Structures are given as structure tokens and as C-alpha cells.
């Protein structure tokens, strides 16, 4: 089981941490900069593209909570943030991560609050940010509907191919509200084709530093 798997804390090029899973030879984020990647792929290419008073966000792969934390800090409107994770991190791993200090020193406890929030219930973290962490397998669990923004942040297709299949993109398409957006750091042609087959319009856009392209899909 992955929760028993050894994960190593590493520094990325922008000074923020990531986790490395030796058994998979895979990082949780880009080694060129974890915060930089998350901001580019999920905040700039996703969150900032939508202007609504209420946003429903669904993240595949909660992991370190970095995307959730940046969204919470950005906080452009009232947000209901759903996130699915099969292998939650242990508290001793979470407390080593430096995102709280780097991103929002004055209120870094909010980062820990994302992790200590109970699973499978909706928690009001601030009066504008509601968190619902689903502990389960995104391939088989029930996903929320009417989602405005999907953050697809699974491990890379060559490391965890079972996360990138036609069924999951069909399922995500059904959950996405008309006009909704799905973003991912991945730019693979096979992934693009699955998203298109699901019904999304898909564009390749500039990726974060160190990566030429990424995908953004719109319903
Ligand atoms: C690339 S990491 C990114 C996580 C996170 N967004 C972050 O910024 O740290 C992928 C995450 O997907 C999780 N995961 C792996 N298999 C999963 C599954 N079947 N269902 C849901 N999450 C899964 C992993 O445990 C890991 O936390």
C-alpha cells in the first residue's frame, strides 16, 4: 500500500518542497518548482479563467494539499473544493512541507487545517472556502456533479497508467458543468485524445517552466 511507501522530502528549483517516491521513481510535482508549477497549471490556467460568484472545484489527487492551499489563498469567490485521495499522507510528512511558510507565512496554520480536516464530510475552513476531502479511488468512487473546474493531478501516465483511462475522462466530463474547465500538467497526445473522445474541447497551452506544453479542456 502507498501509505506505507517511503516518500522523500526534496527541494525543487523555486525553493518549495516536493515528495519523491523511490519505488515509482516519481515526484509529486515538477522538480523545476512545485509552487511555480501548481500556480501555472491550476491557478493561472484554471482558477483565473473563470469568473463566478460560486465555484465548485474537483481535484484528482489531494496529496500534499498544495493546489488546495493556493486556491484557498487566492480565494476569488466562494469555493466548494472537492478532492479525492487514495493514499493520504502521514502527519509527520505533512508537517515537514514548507508551503505554509513560503506561501502565507502570516497564516500558515491554514495549510495544516487542510490536512487535519476530517475526510468524507464538508468542512468550512473560512467563510469563503469549503473543503470536502474524499478518501477513495477516483476510478471507482462517486464524484460530485456540476463542477466548474477539475484539477487533474495524478502521477504521470507512464508511472500510473491506471489513472489515465477513457472511463475516468468520461466520468469527469459528466461531472463538469457546461463551460467548465479541466486542467492538467500533462500534454500527451493519447490523453488529449481521451479528453476529446469524452466530449471536451481540448487545447495545448504553454506549460510551466521546464515543460513546453500542458492541456486545458473545456466542456
Ligand atoms: C502527482 S501527486 C499530486 C498530488 C497533489 N495534487 C499535490 O499537489 O501534492 C498524485 C496524487 O494522486 C494520488 N493517487 C494515486 N492513486 C490514486 C487513486 N486511485 N485515486 C485518488 N488519488 C490517487 C497519490 O497518492 C498522490 O497524492
Entry keywords:
Rossmann fold, 8-stranded mixed beta sheet, 3-stranded antiparallel beta sheet, binds S-adenosylmethionine
Give a written overview of the molecule.
By secondary structure, the chain is an alpha/beta fold. The chain has one domain (33-218): Rossmann fold (3-Layer(aba) Sandwich). It is built from seven helices and eleven strands. An eight-stranded mixed beta sheet has the order 6-7-5-4-8-9-11-10. A three-stranded antiparallel beta sheet has the order 1-2-3, with no helix packed on it. Helix 2 links the parallel strand 4 and strand 5 (78-85). Helix 1 crosses helix 2 (66-74). The longest helix is centred in the N-terminal third of the chain and has 11 residues, at 34-44. The chain starts with 7 loop residues before the first strand and ends with a strand. Residues 2, 28, 61-64, 66-67, 84-87, 137-139, 153-155, 163 line the site of S-adenosylmethionine.
Short structural description:
With 219 residues, this protein is α/β, with parallel strands linked by helices. It contains seven helices and eleven strands.
